[in-house]
Amino acid sequence: MKGKVRLELTDAAGARLAVRRAGNSVLRSGGRLVAELFSGQGTAISHMAVGINGEPEGEEFATVALSNAGEGALVGPTEVAIPTEAFSIEDDAERRVVVVRLRATLPAGSAVGTVREAGLQAGVVADGAVLYNRVTFEPIDKGGDHELTLFWEVSFPYGDLQWLM
Hints:
Elements: E1 2-10, E2 16-23, E3 25-26, H1 28-38, E4 47-51, E5 79-81, E6 87-92, E7 97-106, E8 113-122, E9 130-131, E10 133-142, E11 147-157
């Protein structure tokens, strides 16, 4: 698996104010989520969230939730549901990967403050969400009249994957 994300901050008129790109880290909980889905259990990715912790992921890949507590906490909702139509799936036979793309937007009034991390979740934090992945990036200052849109791309390889072992 390989993932990447592009973030775009826009103002009320739709003008692009900032762009960030980052690589994806699948967390231990994300690996378990995929394994559970494979076995007919678990919950699909349904939400995107942002937080304030800009520290890179540790070697254990054990982060269970994005941070939004203490000094610098974001104001307003930090999670947004991802509608089914926001997902697209294509088979890239040349690269031998199945690519999932999705787009999610935190609207004006949500997650106001300095955003440093983002992730995809199965469910919402209040109900015990499972954090699939996490990316950190150069801080983005999101104002109350700004929208933050994240474009995710996750590639799942196929074919002889013995090289992974």
